[in-house]
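User: Predict the full complex structure for these chains.
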Amino acid sequence: AQTVTQSQPEMSVQEAETVTLSCTYDTSESDYYLFWYKQPPSRQMILVIRQEAYKQQNATENRFSVNFQKAAKSFSLKISDSQLGDAAMYFCALIQGAQKLVFGQGTRLTINP
Amino acid sequence: GAVVSQHPSRVICKSGTSVKIECRSLDFQATTMFWYRQFPKKSLMLMATSNEGSKATYEQGVEKDKFLINHASLTLSTLTVTSAHPEDSSFYICSARDRPGRVTGSSYEQYFGPGTRLTVT
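Assistant: Here is the predicted structure of the two-chain assembly.
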């Protein structure tokens, strides 16, 4: 069975600083995808970044980047130059094949002005 | 592109009545749609997976007769909460996955609707 674990229920960071959200996962497959989703107060799920397991290069989307350590089954999200609009719940998720998306417990990120 | 809508965004109903929530893919054909339930400050819990033209697959512990799911077309899935009770009050989110082989993005990516807040009084 696949599992995703986010060990940080809450994180906070000063505006303009950098913060890293942790995620570990477990799967027996070699082909899978990992995602970070953002859920702001509106509760709309927004895809932040996606990583294909077969790609060694870490994905980057503007201020968001990941540190994908396949052997360690770790997939952390780094947010650079944090902005007030980054405040949200962040969910790490895993999917393999045509199966269901498995979510972590979530990390609530607060941005301090 | 890849927009999913849900209707209604909020609904209040009396205990014992049924309520229907619609999930539509606006600009793509969704072979598979998913229904999630989310409690406050918690993660998304998958309730069921629906494939167009076939019966939904429910997760363990989800009552099939209470949460009726219909996926009659490639752009519409509905969730009907039957004989609703206050404990059914929650935030319900749908997502849709497009046909495999779509040009942009992963064929595994799910696009989420904005959610429906159900309150049963």
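Chain B touches chain A through 21 residues (CB under 8 Å).
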